[in-house]
Please model this.
Amino acid sequence: MSVITTSAPEFRAALPEGGVLIGLDVGSKTIGTAFCDAGWSFASPADLITRSKFARDKGLFRAGFASRPTAGVVIGLPINMDGSESPRSQSSRSFARNILDIGLPILLWDERWSTAAAERFMIEADLSRAKRAERIDSAAAAHILQGAIDALTI
Model:
């Protein structure tokens, strides 16, 4: 069932049994991706997609979804610290609407602090600035996805 929601229970109800979830951190220049295991226990960073024409990007998503038994998509929703939405929030919502025809349920998940948390983790892992720069978006996608799967499995 294709649905876009910000509610973890509504998203859970729309998911088929089995399959992995894909996390996306959608930026204006890149899209960080992450996948979780089939048991929805842990999220792992995956590829970084450099954005170009939307049709190409969507094709890459379709290929990624087809390569695994994918149940749903979690997209980071940029929310201001006061809880309000911004133009970036609208961009993420628009992106979700544009991929809805892929046929997977979509959860828009609050991504406040995701980049900061991913950066902190990579600093603790002693990654160089250059390595952090090339991995931050996918690490943030994994952080977003982990928050969502934690909420789904409570």
In short: The CA atoms of residues 71 and 130 lie 34 Å apart. The chain has one domain: 4-152. The domain at 4-152 is CATH 3.30.420.140 (Nucleotidyltransferase; domain 5). The longest helix spans residues 129-152.
